[in-house]
Design brief:
This protein is globular. With about 200 residues, it is α/β, with parallel strands linked by helices. The chain has helices at about 20-35, 50-70, 95-100, 115-120, 125-130, 160-170, 185-195; strands at about 10, 40, 75-80, 105-110, 135-140, 140-145, 150, 175. A 6-stranded parallel sheet has the order 1-2-3-4-5-8. It has a two-stranded antiparallel sheet with strand order 6-7. About 35% of the residues are buried. Helix content is about 40%, strand content about 15%. Keywords: Isomerase. This is Sugar phosphate isomerase/epimerase family protein.
Length: about 200
């Protein structure tokens, strides 16, 4: 035994939502074999965010994936990017709010606080509003103006407040993430120190 746990993994991050069911069937036994706790998916095709009808279509597909994952005792989570925090066309309501109202509770959330901030929203308020629907928190610092991932402490996100809010809601897993580090190993060390200092 290694002592390592696998709280979650991303399902096919570079394939379309329509291709995800086949990807899930192809890989799900591997995730179950390592006792992975949850699978997360993001939606990069922005056509799904153009209208409430398209969001409803997306919700049905995510719920179907969640049902398959549940058959293997895996939670299924939605991972955000920055574009979900823009208003839905013709409304003042953030796309993310429309999503969360449309998608049933079979789909939890893996919230990326950096992308929330880059989208012009408040990650602490989002954490608090999600409550127990939030399962995993991605710790990412960003330069908001450039919508670019940076080393923790070098960006605009109040990560300590995000962690405090998530702990208050019962989140157990905090995942450090930097999308494009110049030195990946050094970035991992920086991220690990940051998380340890928050204990």
């Amino acid at each position: 035994m290694t002592g390592l746990e696998v709280p979650g993994a991303h399902l096919g991050p570079f394939i379309s939502l329509d291709e995800q069911p086949a990807e899930l069937e192809r890989t799900i036994e591997s995730y179950a074999a390592v006792d992975c706790g949850a699978l997360a998916v993001s939606v990069g095709d922005r056509a799904y965010f153009e209208s409430a009808d398209r969001i409803a279509e997306m919700a049905q597909k995510l719920e179907s994936l969640a049902e398959t994952a549940a058959g293997y005792d895996l939670d299924f989570l939605y991972h955000n990017h920055h574009w979900e925090f823009q208003p839905l066309s013709g409304t003042d309501t953030a796309i993310f709010d429309v999503q969360m109202a449309e998608i049933d509770d079979s789909v939890g959330v893996e919230l990326d606080v950096g992308w929330v901030a880059a989208g012009g929203d408040d990650p602490v308020k989002r954490i608090e509003s999600l409550g127990d629907r939030l399962e995993i928190l991605h710790i990412k610092d960003v330069d908001i103006a450039e919508k670019r991932s940076v080393e923790v402490g070098e960006g605009d996100v109040d990560l300590a407040s995000c962690v405090d809010a998530a702990l208050a809601t019962g989140v157990d897993w905090f995942v450090y993430e930097h999308d494009e580090p110049s030195d990946p190993l050094a970035s991992l060390e920086t991220g690990a120190r940051f998380l340890l200092d928050l204990q």
